[in-house]
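Morning!

As promised:
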Amino acid sequence: MTAPPVSDQLGLRRANLALLLGTLRAHGPHSRAGLARRTGLTKATASSLVAELTGRGLVRLGEVAPGHGRPAQLVELRPGAVCGIGLEANVDYAALAVLDVAGGTIAQRRVAVDLAGAGYDRAVDLLAALAKEGLAATDGWVAGITVAVPGLVDVDHGVVRLAPNLGWREARLAEDLAGRLAGRPVLVDNDANLSALAEHAAGVAAGTPDLLYLTGEVGVGGGVIAGGALLRGATGFTGEVGHLPLDPVGLPCGCGRRGCWETQVGLAALLREVAPPGDPVADPATDLETRLLLVRDRAAAGDARTLAALDRIGTDLGVGASILVNVLNPAAVVLGGYFALLGEWLAPPARAELAARVLAPDCGGCRLLLSDLGFTAAVLGGAHAALDRVFADPTLAPTDDSDPDPDPRSPQ
Amino acid sequence: MTAPPVSDQLGLRRANLALLLGTLRAHGPHSRAGLARRTGLTKATASSLVAELTGRGLVRLGEVAPGHGRPAQLVELRPGAVCGIGLEANVDYAALAVLDVAGGTIAQRRVAVDLAGAGYDRAVDLLAALAKEGLAATDGWVAGITVAVPGLVDVDHGVVRLAPNLGWREARLAEDLAGRLAGRPVLVDNDANLSALAEHAAGVAAGTPDLLYLTGEVGVGGGVIAGGALLRGATGFTGEVGHLPLDPVGLPCGCGRRGCWETQVGLAALLREVAPPGDPVADPATDLETRLLLVRDRAAAGDARTLAALDRIGTDLGVGASILVNVLNPAAVVLGGYFALLGEWLAPPARAELAARVLAPDCGGCRLLLSDLGFTAAVLGGAHAALDRVFADPTLAPTDDSDPDPDPRSPQ
């Protein structure tokens, strides 16, 4: 989300409100004088802006700052009053997260359900029920609802162009979901994009302006943060990394070609290689995380077949990741999903390939990190995306009756 | 280049000066009233800003706008007064370009020279001589000098970390060149990055916010424009696309591995495949463009060996480009260097691979285009990069004595 252009006094005030709010998010509580110093605004302007942010429920006055001078109250992001809702539709689960501007979790829940098998209409019903649960969980103002979907999403129109693993094509999800939520506006975005947003907001690489997130699920997707913002490309389809053609004589891929990266390092490759026939790890009737923890236990116990598979996958993960690092030069590659769960064994061979294959000295400064958001990155990212609208334009949040500075003569 | 943050009145005025100047660049001459309408500024503010831009030599009053109302003079970018200088160091040539803010060419020259063989110090001497020639060609104010180099460049420090084809490593080019130019500041950047800037400013895909430029030279490099700005990544090393590992059993590459994209589609692959032993096309003593025109003539005459080679290279060009389109989702891929010269034969098979391999519907809207800047894209991009400093902050350009609006009370 980008703020409107700054071409007049109202635009300037909006930009400065966003500047203060972003400063509090990035650097924590400040006194009003401290905010003025850090942003280059005058103390009077900073105070006037803080009053407006307070009136909009975005900040509050908290503790008194320690120090020798006159005691000053610290301004901090206000918990609970302004929230964002994230939803996720995935192959075998749906999820909800409600976060507030202060980064606090108001609600979070995951429902195991065969969403791919349920059919589109029942899936939308279920997402709507989760959204209502989220709306009921807060008495604050809800900045927006963003749904994460594993597929190609037309963000501008809220249409899922193609989500092969869900069996959706040209699904008008934003419209269909809004219709079940009394017309409340809904945004839809790609799950890897939203996961990257979550990592940037609150993950192991939080605040890193240039990072690449890789989903480790049935498919392999990428979300790219560049210069502190999500890289969307011309039509919103960046980060389709699963079909890097790495081996002309490799295994057949669902896309119709051979040797795509996904066939080497996707979840199916892992399960096929670690599990002999009849092994419970390969039994789709068992919950996926349970099966992955079994793989983890075997690796920890030194099982040769498991370790060989993880070493091979880690190596191919590094080969593909090196391509993306050479193209994008991120400061961090964050491994998500099953890559993170088994990162202890996947990361070392992947790091070795990166070191050998990235052309820039010292890997261009890139670190390979394991996400600690597990399989919740996308839904958390949905909530962050909804909140980002307010961080870009704090005047979206409604003022309460006690707005202490409604004076329209304060120009800045 | 990004403008300083807009946190005060001076910042606002600077941002609005940049807004007007950018509007004139993107949309051509406007009356002052037209500028006000398009930017949302008041007419009084727009007039005051135009006066300042005039005083800084960036715009001038030109023709009277046609129409029924009161006649109004059109404001347009002023030729000649404010310039940017581009230089290029390449394997077998050095080049100079001087452009003004209006996009006019003040000077342009290319010197055939074995720069790789000359050694670093002599190369810097030659670049300094070209820079002096450029400075002498204009009596306007020079916004900056930017040098294009085929290699990994640390832009912040002006250091060429590694330019294998020139044999340079950890070369402090900005400092060494400034030392020969009386301390005049010099920037250094990657040639593919600068070529992408030139295409964005004035090429076949001018103004396209998301585009990918591919150099077709000894090496294959990429320059990425995303959201209207150059994508630099964490340490400035984006776009290293030549070593996409496309064939594990392919030909050995200079990087030590096999089957890199560069081994399939770089200039060496072309010359090897089209030319039997003893063929003048493979004779390094003959000028490269002459040899490429010979290849072109043979293709036009239907020579089977040439056509087979171009079809194979075009196909592999499309395979690699499809990876980049899936990752970056550009609206245009612009083929430069020899790819453009032989584009008539390379583009059709490349387009077929893109159509088959890009996952987004309709190629994600991406078109494959042939550059019309030939081998001059990088040096022109250097001149544009130097000018971009002034487009981002017009107050860098000095005011002349006749500055018609020096009144510091004009706040906006």
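Confidence is low (pLDDT under 50) at residues 1-5, 402-412 of chain A.

Hope this helps with the figure draft.
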